[in-house]
Amino acid sequence: MNPAQHESRHAAITVGADNQPIPRETQLAAYNAAFIELGLRFRWDAAMYEWLCGIECEKGRVARYIEEHHPHLLAAYDAAFLSGLIFEKKNEYLRAVGHLN
């Protein structure tokens, strides 16, 4: 696990540039912005994000979502590849809004 992150089974906490937790609403917005930028036709709501936060690894949580809700994408892309792209775009959003360096 990245030392800048602490996640538990019930609550994922991502720490930002100021060593303060990044609000869940901001993280959710970052994921949804990444989906839009990558042309993916899905969007997470607060309930889905909360459920996915039970998965310790951020990239693992994205891969699990794709495997369960959009398995057709796996015919063309590897889940790890897609989750890596989404993770990078999410972090670009967080940097743009000043939460990550």
TrEMBL record:
InterPro entries: PGP-like_dom2 (IPR023198)
Gene3D superfamilies: Putative phosphatase, domain 2 (1.10.150.240)
Domain of life: Bacteria
Protein name stated in the entry: Uncharacterized protein
Organism of provenance: Cupriavidus taiwanensis
Organism phylogeny: Bacteria, Pseudomonadati, Pseudomonadota, Betaproteobacteria, Burkholderiales
